[in-house]
Design brief:
The complex is a heterodimer of chains A (about 300) and B (about 375). Chain A has about 300 residues and is an alpha/beta fold. Chain A has seven helices and 20 strands. Mean pLDDT of chain B is about 95; it is low at about 10-20. Chain B has about 375 residues and is α/β, with parallel strands linked by helices. The chains are: A alpha/beta (about 300), B alpha/beta (about 375).
């Protein structure tokens, strides 16, 4: 049985004064992070719990989403995914700050939550309701508190090159964790500067990630996603339970991803889908085999959690 | 491995020595998973291996207005089917392939719609013949991958209401729900992350027979798009990933996809619409100047033989227009401006037809193909 853990929920960073309380209430905001200069004005506002926060010193993140770089890549229609996952993995205890507008606030909120990070999210009036709705959804998510599932150990030397390789690993759902040295249980360890992964070749991070993928082999990958190129996954595990979090980076453009297929190593006899703004959605074509479990996610707005049980 | 599925690999060794010069250098590693075993009773190449019937009718379509004469098309269908089967009654012809119990999929091609597509007059004529042999209209499906293209044609205005008109996806990469999750080809062409192409679901689950109705067109990547391309790319998801920059893997991907069961078993008849066609910048029809009017329909069960004839048609037209051959691989003819027939975005791979022949899908050698020409 799962139990509710005290999860880190991202917070709205709001510079407006108490006179904007009605706007926040109408959007469904109940908690707010405010600059110290505004703290006094929020003290006696009912229905909204205000705490002081300072984005100074926090890592400012770009808006998560997708972009099309037709001039940069090739004759492919696969968009470029702007994910901040690698930043969270590089600084697991870091403080982060987004400044996003509109529906992107929901995706930013989900992204920060997915990586269990402490994030402040500043948004505009149009972003308040999506942010509030996402926070409400996230409050209902139960975490197994499981360990991160990784196929690859990546030795992060803190360099920009290593950061870009990690960025691409995240985008391609090549599951990794940051290590100092080879660890048992990992299928591959990557250290830039080793003979297998020369720093000179990391100048082309795309080629480097292809090499990592080739060395790992697709057959040994714990997770595969088919039918979309804009969904990034994060996987945690306890002995009898797997939790898969899915982020749709196309949501920032208002795009709901259509049905896509997921393959996960291991047999899981049942699963439960919790999908943001799609409470009735259920997994289809569920197929647990001896060595892997496959299922189709019928669609994805911004974020979903799938709990799989043995 | 899924115990209810069959995994088989394309067998390049069988193809050794049979490849056209360049494209065969690196055949990708295809991994095929299908719920259906190889069948010895293929619909393709079928009973009429190496045979193609061409019916030409000058009055079938008006070159100026592109208006199709449905009555002439009806006569063309009758003549073609009778010539192919040797039967003298239309009902006997169609009964060679289809029974009243069948659920029949009619695979149309709408990528050039609304100007160049499987003509609704031909599709309606096929439906009429199926109904005439006792196939209930509700057991007939007209289908394509993308709904937008399919709807733009308006087949519903030509066939009985109860005929199903179905598309696998609303738009590009819309959803995989229209595809069978257990029948797919897995391959990594360019390091793309999404390496699976799933087969359309009713092809796997619903249809008992398929009538393939491609359009007569040049194709920027494949060289030509006819029976094989419609059987392959027209039945699978996530296939445009096979082209990048000037390189295309259509050479081997088309035949590989077309040979995945149950496609070769269920495709029992090919009727290629050559009333109108495209000779440059296909499979789309962005440029009116590249449309042409062969005014013919091809009939057969052998998709390779039919596509071999298609190559001749396209080559002849291109030659008449002073355009390079579709077999031309010169870098000097590579260019993004394909409004100029001297240029093309990709190195075309018409050798895919020969490749498919080595997968057992039909006869490619021109001197072994028996072409019967009928003039109406």
């Amino acid at each position: 049985m799962l139990f509710l853990l005290a999860l880190v929920l991202p917070g709205l960073y709001w510079q407006g004064g108490a006179e904007t309380a009605l706007l926040l209430r109408q959007a469904g905001i109940t908690h707010v992070l405010v600059p110290a200069s505004q703290a006094a004005s929020w003290k006696n506002v009912s229905g909204i719990d205000a705490k002081t926060a300072d984005p100074q010193g926090a890592v400012k993140l770009p808006a998560p989403g997708i972009s099309f770089r037709m001039n940069r890549s090739s004759a492919t229609r696969v968009p470029w995914v702007n994910s901040n996952g690698w930043q969270f993995m590089r600084r697991p205890t870091g403080r982060f700050y987004y400044d996003v507008s509109g529906a992107s606030s929901a995706l930013a909120t989900a992204e920060a939550f997915c990586y269990g990070t402490d994030a402040m999210i500043q948004t505009d009036a149009a972003g308040l309701r999506p942010l509030a709705q996402m926070l409400k959804f996230l409050e209902g998510i139960k975490s197994s508190g499981g360990a991160l599932v990784s196929d690859i150990g990546f030795v992060d030397d803190g360099s920009p090159a290593a950061g870009e390789v990690m960025n691409l690993l995240v985008r391609d759902n090549l599951l990794f964790k940051i290590v100092h040295a080879t660890e048992p249980g990992l299928k591959l360890t990557v250290r830039l500067g080793s003979p297998e992964y020369p720093v000179s070749e990391a100048k082309n991070p795309d080629a480097m990630v292809h090499r990592i993928r080739a060395n790992l082999t697709d057959e040994r990958r714990t997770l595969r996603i088919y039918g979309t190129s804009v969904v990034v996954a994060r996987l945690t595990r306890t002995p009898d339970h797997l939790q898969l979090q899915l982020l749709n980076y196309g949501f920032a453009r208002g795009t709901r991803v259509g049905a896509f297929r997921v393959r996960i190593c291991g047999r899981y006899s049942k699963a439960q889908l919790h999908s943001y703004e799609s409470p009735g959605d259920q997994l289809v074509d569920y197929d647990p085999e001896s060595d892997a479990t496959e299922f189709t996610v019928p669609g994805l707005k911004a974020y979903a959690v799938i709990d799989l049980f043995k | 491995m899924n115990r209810r599925s069959f995994i088989y690999l394309a067998a390049p060794s069988l193809l050794a020595g049979a490849m056209a010069e360049t494209a065969a250098e690196s055949i990708p590693d295809y991994r095929i998973t299908s719920r259906f075993p190889h069948s010895p009773n293929h619909g393709a190449p079928g009973s009429y291996k190496g045979q193609v019937v061409r019916v030409h009718a000058e009055k079938s379509i008006d070159s100026g207005s592109a208006r199709v004469d449905r009555a002439v098309v009806k006569r063309m269908l009758s003549a073609g089917m009778q010539s192919l089967t040797g039967c003298t009654r239309d009902q006997d012809c169609w009964s060679r392939f289809i029974s009243s119990n069948d659920i029949v999929g009619i695979k149309v091609n709408c990528s050039g719609a609304p100007h160049i597509m499987s003509s609704p007059e031909i599709v309606a004529g096929i439906v009429d013949n199926l109904v005439a042999i006792g196939v209930p209209a509700r057991q007939i499906w007209i289908y394509e991958r993308f709904q937008g293209q399919l709807k733009s044609v308006g087949y519903d205005r030509y066939v009985p209401n109860s005929v199903n008109i179905w598309a696998a996806e609303k738009d590009f990469r819309g959803s995989i729900l229209g595809y069978d999750p257990k029948t797919y080809v897995e391959v990594d062409f360019f390091g793309e992350e999404d390496t699976r192409s799933f087969m359309t679901r009713p092809v796997a689950d619903t249809f008992t027979k398929i009538i393939n109705v491609p359009k007569m067109k040049e194709h920027q990547a494949a060289g030509v798009t006819g029976c094989l391309k419609n059987m392959s790319y027209g039945h699978f998801s996530n296939v445009d990933r096979s082209h990048r920059f000037t390189k295309t893997n259509t050479y081997s991907f088309i035949g590989t996809l077309a040979s995945v069961e149950p496609i070769p078993t269920k495709v029992v008849l090919n009727i290629m619409d050559g009333l109108s066609g495209v000779w440059q910048a296909g499979p789309f029809s962005e440029y009116p100047q590249f449309r042409f009017y062969p005014k013919q329909i091809l009939f057969g069960t052998d998709p390779v033989a039919m596509d071999r004839i298609l190559i001749d048609v396209i080559e002849e037209k291109r030659k008449a227009e002073g355009a390079p051959s579709i077999f031309d691989r010169s870098p000097s003819h590579i260019g993004s401006d394909n409004s100029n027939p001297n240029f093309n975005a990709f190195i075309r791979e018409p050798g895919h037809v020969e490749y498919a022949s080595h997968l057992g899908l039909g006869i490619c050698e021109r001197d072994r193909i028996k072409l019967k020409a009928i003039e109406l």
